[in-house]
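If you are new to this repository, start here. Below is one unmodified record pulled from the training split, so you can see the exact layout before writing a loader.
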Amino acid sequence: MTSRLSRLAALASQAANVILFNGQADETISGRAWREGDLHGEPVWRGRRVLIDRLFWTLARQPDHCRESHQRDVEFALLILAD
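And here is the target side for that same chain:
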């Protein structure tokens, strides 16, 4: 089970993805940066992914933050579909 703080951070990222980038409500900015930047080759999102990953490495020593965030977004979507 994820912590309340972790879920609130994901909620804030999802809201920012919608408000700032006109994205999907159930996708975090980090997950989108991985999907659009690395999977789809969008240069702007690849740059954002690099910046986000560097930030999370610096603050939390978390490598591959965006890839892991994308994976969590996918797992959450699969949970919703399973219900």
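Two things worth knowing about this chain: The chain is about 80% helix and 0% strand. The first helix runs from residue 4 to 21.
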